[in-house]
From TrEMBL:
This is DoxX family protein. The chain crosses the membrane at residues 43-62, 69-88, 94-113. InterPro entries: DoxX. Keywords: Membrane, Signal, Transmembrane, Transmembrane helix. Residues 1-22 form the signal peptide. It comes from Nocardiopsis changdeensis. The keyword NAD does not apply. Pfam families: DoxX_2. The keyword Transmembrane applies. It is found in: Membrane. It is a multi-pass membrane protein.
Length: 114
């Protein structure tokens, strides 16, 4: 495992874990985003669980690379869905989405290159 692999995986895992905590603890930011994007608030805990599972999977992938690869692929698909949600309502405020997407894609690339 190289430094570059860790440099790609750890920030993605940390950011996704933080977002999962925000979703699962009822922080106002996920609620406001859901309202703005027309996503039912009942989906917030599910989305938080998916983010948390992705973060844990990225970390587990440090021991079992196939798990990390699956988690990274799942997170990339998650953020493709997030992009669709933004574009569906014409929301072009994509700064946070871009950060999460780039980190998830970097983690996926890191696992693919192992």
């Amino acid at each position: 495992m190289s430094f570059l692999h860790l440099a790609a995986v750890l920030p993605a895992a940390l950011l996704c874990a933080a977002a999962a905590v925000a979703n699962l603890t009822g922080h106002r930011y996920p609620r406001e985003e859901a309202d703005r994007l027309g996503v039912p608030r009942t989906w917030i805990p599910v989305l938080g669980t998916l983010l948390g599972a992705g973060a844990l999977g990225l970390l587990a992938g440090l021991a079992v690379p196939a798990v990390g690869l699956a988690a990274a692929a799942g997170l990339v698909l998650y953020f493709v869905g997030a992009l669709v949600a933004h574009l569906r309502v014409g929301d072009l405020r994509l700064g946070a989405w871009a950060l999460f997407s780039v980190l998830s894609a970097a983690a996926l690339a890191a696992y693919l290159l192992l």
